[in-house]
Amino acid sequence: MTYLSDLNTKTQYKAKVRKTKRLTPANTEEIREIMLEVEDPGFQCQVDQSFGVLVKHDSEFGNEYHHRLYSVADIPSKKDGKTHLTMLVKRCSYVDDFNGELYQGVGSSYLCDREVGDVITVTGPFELPFKIPEDKNANLILIGMGTGIAPFRAFVKHIYADVKDWKGKIRLFYGAKSGLELLYLNDKDGDLTSYYDEATFEAFHALSPRPHWEDPISLDAAIEERAEEVLEMLSYSNTYIYIAGYEKVKENLNKAFINIMGSKEKWENRKAELIAGKKWAEVIY
User: Fold this and answer.
1) Where are the chain's structural domains?
2) Helix (H, G, I), strand (E, B) or coil at 87
3) Distances, alpha carbon 239 to alpha carbons 143, 231, 245, in Å
4) pLDDT tens, 254-270?
5) Peptide linkage before 211 cis (omega within 30 of 0)
């Protein structure tokens, strides 16, 4: 497993904010779509990669650099030789367990506060584990939680826009705390809905049962509702499962797959096969 501290941050690039748009209403958790422009031709980021953002900040240990990774949320493009990247950012905060004080997330607050024309420092690109299979008959079960949908948005768009002639099933399960957070698949910004015409693509969403509490998103229930189809997909040797999102949802997903497979042993054996065949990948935070 690769840790954030292991990544090379010595190679850095300047990126200019070209667009920044809030996707959620003002009285809800802030989630923004930000488009960056990198002028340096040495920065080549692909749809299956992530990139880092370096933020200089003051801490009790003096000046430090805060490094966070972000997935590419759309197919990277070139304009006048410059790379254009789209990212999703959720403004985060946390309560200190010791003093009970509320602190704003360093990286997310910095990015959400940027304005058009501001310049930030990016690193990378870095490899993501989500690879498009060479077999166009392969089946894909994609599970994205919250902003974890970002890499799959770019992933699905790339398959239907660039790979084309995809014959395997693609099932995207995505979730959020509330309907206001169903990024990119709502009425206003529903660019993925254009792929509903594709015979191979379907998307299903799930919400938290209590959006103002810490209850996990009910993705497990959404998956179990399609148990028959998921079980059929898992019966094929060319099925892949890719997961991106919150750590706390993993346990419920595991229970859902156990229920679908019929026993813990059957699911553990099938998951081991997926991992051994490089057909299982996850990015958990």
Assistant:
1) 4-127, 139-284
2) strand
3) 14, 11, 20
4) 888 999 999 999 999 99
5) no
CA–centroid distance for 129 within its chain: 12
Cα separation of 235 and 226, whole Å?
A: 14
What residues have CB less than 8 Å from 270, skipping those under 6 apart?
A: 234, 257, 261
Does the domain spanning 4-127 belong to CATH 3.40.50.1400? no
Q: What's the pLDDT tens digit per position in 117-167?
A: 999 999 988 887 888 999 999 999 998 876 667 778 778 888 887 887 889
Q: What is the DSSP string of 149-208?
A: GHHHHHHHHHIIIII----S-EEEEEEESSGGG-TTSSSSS-GGGGGGGSTTEEEEEEE-
CA distance 150 to 242: 13
Q: Which pTM value belongs to this model?
A: 0.72
Per CATH, 4-127 and 139-284 having the same topology is answered no
Q: Which residue has the tokens 């946390």?
A: 94
Q: How do 93-95 and 102-104 pair as beta strands?
A: antiparallel
Burial environment of residue 139 by CB neighbours within 10 A (0 to 12, 13 to 18, 19 or more) = buried
**What tokens does 156 get?**
């699905």
- The rounded distance, in Å, linking the Cα atoms of 176 and 144 is 9
Cα 155 versus chain centre, distance: 10
